[in-house]
Amino acid sequence: MIFNVVVTPDTEIGGFTVSCPALPGCHSQGETIEEALENARDAMSGCVEVLNRIA
Fold first, then answer.
1. CA-CA 20 to 30 A from 36: which of 6, 45, 47, 55?
2. What are the residue boundaries of the structural domains of the chain, listed by start?
3. What pLDDT, on the 0 to 100 scale, is given for residue 20?
4. What is the pTM of this model?
């Protein structure tokens, strides 16, 4: 599946946060953009798995 994500610099603690508008509540973070996106892939996979279980 392909999802659009929003990557935002975290000005308070550094690094980047990632959110996925199609999966409310699904957020991740990382020290670099690459790490944040990798962590987001894992988070989105987990969110989709949970949604499939409760559907």
1. 55
2. 6-54
3. 97
4. 0.88
